[in-house]
Amino acid sequence: MMKFKVDENEQTIMSQSVFERDSTDAADDAVIRESINNPGTERQQEPLPNREEADNIVEPEEVSYGKLMLQRKRAMKYKTVIKVTSLERVGSVTNRRTNPTLIFYCSTNLPIFRKQHYKNVKKSYNEFKQLSKFLSTSLMETFVPTLPLPYTSYGINNNEDYDKVVFNYQEWFNRVINDPIIMTCEEFAFFIESDFNTYTPISKPKSSKITGLKRKTLKQLAPPYDANIELAEFRPMIKSIYLNLKNIQDKLVKTSKLKRAMVREQNNYGDIFTNTDYDNGNENSLYKRYGKVLITVGDIESIISTMDLATLYDGFEWIINDAYSVKETLTNRHFLMRDLIQAQQNSKQKQENVKKLRSRRDLNPLKIDESLKEFKEIIKYEESLTLKLQRTTENMIIERNSWINWYEKWLLNSIKEYTIRKIEYERKKLAVLERLRYDVRKADNKGGLSRLGRLYDDKDGRIESSQTVQGDSWTGENRVHTVEEVDRFKTTEFDPVLDCNAGKDSTNVQKANVIDEKVAANFLGMSTF
Question: What is the pLDDT, as a whole number, of residue 48?
Answer without folding.
Answer: 37
